[in-house]
Fold this sequence. Notes:
By secondary structure, the protein is of the alpha+beta class. The chain has helices at 30-33, 35-39, 60-64, 90-98, 122-127, 184-187, 199-211, 241-249, 267-281, and strands at residues 46-51, 56-59, 70-74, 83-89, 107-112, 119-121, 131-136, 143-144, 153-154, 159-161, 176-182, 217-218, 221-222. It has a five-stranded mixed beta sheet with strand order 2-1-11-5-6. It is globular.
Amino acid sequence: MGRGLAPVALSLVVSLAACEPPPAGRPRSAVATAAASADAAPPAGPALRFLGAAEGQLDVDALAALPGAGVVQAAPPGASAPVAWRGVPLRAALQQGFGAGWRAADELLFTCLDGYQPALPVATALAGAPWLVWARADGAPFRHTLPGHAAPVALGPLYLVWPGTPPKKAQWPYQVTAVETINFSERFAGLVPAADAPAAVRAGFDVWRTHCHKCHRLQGLGGTIGPELGRPVGVLDYWQPAMLRRWLRAPQSIREGSPMPPVALNEAELDTLFAYLRDRSGTPPGQATP
Length: 290
């Protein structure tokens, strides 16, 4: 209770849904495109939950009562002009949920309704001025047609938007339900290569973190919007490398209607990613490397 949370908000967890490539090319899902959800009113229950050191939640009324809450102008991906949103500065929500300690964390891990799980560097959040929004100020349905989607996407419970010019590593996760302050290498220790791993494996880990982790699990760790890639059989044990390269670059050229977006990786990056996947596929689930 020493963090200034109301009794209803003892912990904060934020769930986000966003896909590769950033900021808007996220895989399509039934959750993301449900029109009924898009037109629904803001949730009456918890809109944002906090995980980790603080455990609690805030509903929309509690978020709307925080300092700075109101209306903000931000142009979402694919929009030709800014949209007016009702929300609260992300910093105010984090301060209420975690106290000042959130600034010392490495990253903010968001969780989304469809299983998308992006990590945002705290430095990026501090460099910009992102808001968590829960409605359009004009009363229109809380949805938007994002690049890569043929139909409007339901954005609630919460959507992270960036007024003005967003920082380079800004992300726009939607359908956010929870947030956690983390050190990635500690939170996902089972994904970290051994200190003496080959350089290609270590480089592949960076590629995985940037392009794959938000949507896919490896040894049970990561997003759940896409399939597990490491167990019980590693993806490279049943995919020919040449076909997997083609799949990553142009999924629709192999499977018509695939919701997976193309991933922009060069040959060297794919080589290191494959080296990393082979290395991690032999790791027992959840076991940290020495």
